[in-house]
Amino acid sequence: MRMMLKVSIPVEAGNKGIKEGTLPKTVMGFVEKMKPEACYFGPEDGKRTAIFIFDLDDPTLIPTVSEAFFMNLNAAISLSPVMNLDEMKRGVELAAKNAR
Length: 100
What we know:
The chain is an alpha+beta fold and 100 residues long. It has one domain (2-98): 2-Layer Sandwich (Alpha-Beta Plaits), CATH 3.30.70.120. The chain contains four helices and four strands; from the N terminus they run βααββαβα. The protein has helices spanning 11-20, 22-34, 62-73, 85-98, and strands spanning 2-9, 38-44, 47-55, 76-81. The longest helix has 14 residues, at 85-98. The chain starts with a strand and ends with a helix.
């Protein structure tokens, strides 16, 4: 299932992660392991924030996805199922058929 992982890194933990190299190492470890189809980075609510879109075939991998961000960067995460445009169109069509 396609998932969106949002990672919010507190300022002090992010500063330390940059100085010690754990921030890029943690991000690249996730990217190499989960091979996201998209990665976005920017500030949100005064924190360094990353958004990754990737496939999660097995829910038992959730700790694998999460723990490095928690442990290395004191990050808060959210993990949500998402669809692309084509999937949304098919889903809405199916929902409309079932609503009749």
